[in-house]
Structure formats: structure tokens, C-alpha cells
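Researcher: I'm preparing a figure for a lab meeting and need a structural model of a single chain. I don't have an experimental structure, so a prediction will have to do for now. The sequence is pasted below. Please return the structure as C-alpha cells so I can convert it later.
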Amino acid sequence: MSSQSINAETVTTELDNILEMENVSVAYAGNYAVKNVSFNVARNAITSIIGPSGCGKSTLLRCLNRMNDFILDVSIEGKIRFEGQDIYAREVDAVEVRHHMGMVFQKPNPFPKSIFKNVAWGPTVNRYQGSITELVERSLKQASLWDEVKDRLNDSALGLSGGQQQRLCIARALAMEPNVLLMDEPCSALDPISTAHIEDLMFDLKSRYTIVIVTHNMQQASRVSDYTAFMEMGNLIEFDESERLFTRPSNQRTEDYVSGRFG
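Model: Understood. Here is the structure written out cell by cell.
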């Protein structure tokens, strides 16, 4: 076993881990994009996955809510456990997994509906038993968007700014009351001010949710995350507390990447 994989196992051993990945590999038509990745995700913390383009970080993220199930010729090996349950076990319903794992994508993708209906759509389809109006308000407040849109909930979501649209997509994910919020490059299409809003929001949300974020922005990862996984060519090179990984990495490849010498 490599030193970096030992590190990945020991960093969060004493913590309350909500997700555990053990020797996860993903192949598309036999070509491996992720190779034997193992690390844990601590509850109510922010975990970043960083690495060069094409290193497998988004593929790994999509494994956590079984979105890769929609891709033809994909094969997934290893174990991913949520609250101790293997999410790829035969008896596990993938739809139920996705209820627990909210997803926010790289580009804001609001529905061509009103602001209210964007947030209400998922719970309504899933026959939410409480007050939809209260749920929409609560979700928009958690996404720090309520004060900006409360007087125009019936307006089209497409009229919002890019940053507002991304926060709306976060509110839409939160309306499903997930345990984990997965974020795939959520700020890459946003300006610096909108990016700062999203980062502040992540700090606020981690008291109630566990967040896993894929980002190319190393400064962002170092600012917002408690733990960071560095991947290269499908391999996990190093996993550690973010402060240590960015200042005292144990692997030379990690040091070269975070210092800008490659990638």
C-alpha cells in the first residue's frame, strides 16, 4: 500500500465520516478514468477534489450520486458507502441515493420556469408532504437568495444574473433536503463577486450539510475546504487536511501542482 493511500485512510479515521470510498475505479469502455481511489468524507465539512483537467475528479464526484449510471459502457469497481451502506449494492435504489446527494453543476442550469417553480419542482414531483411555500422560502434563504427575489418569485429564473442563477440551483438542490451537497466547478462560470457569494454560502451551509466540491481553483480549495484530495491521471496522489496539503504536502507531485510548477 502506498504512503499516500495510508495517509488518505488515517486523516479522517477518528472523525464522523458520512461517505467512505474504498478502491473506487471507473472505466469508460474499458479505459480507466479513476483508479483505486480511497478516502473518507467527514460530516459537516467541506472536502475539495483538485487536479489537472482530465484527472478524473468530476467522474469520481458523479459516482457519489450514481450519475455515471446514465453513461453507456461505464464500469464501476470498489465500494462507496453512505452512512455505512454500499450505494452500489443490488438492493439500493439509485433514485433514493440521489435524494441524499444534491448536485450543483459547473454552469447554472435553471429551468425555464418561474423562480418559485424552479425550487418547488423537485419536491412537488416527489410528493412533498409539508408546505411547499415554506420549503421554497427556507431553501432560498439557505442559498442567500431570498432577499433578492422574494418580491418576484413568479418571474422567470432566466432573468436572474449568473451568480443568482447558481444560487437558485443551490436552493433547488437544498429543497430536496439532501445530506450531502456535491458541487462540480460551481464558480467557474461566475465573476469574482459572485464567486465570493458562493464561497461565503458554502461556509454557512456546512453546519447543516456535508459539501464535496470539485474545483480547478486551488486558491478557492485552500480558502473554503477542510480537506483536499489531489488527483492526477485517475490516481489519488494525496489526501490531507487542506491547510497541511497546501503548505506542507507530503508528496512531491502535490507540491509541484499546488506551487504551479505543473498542471
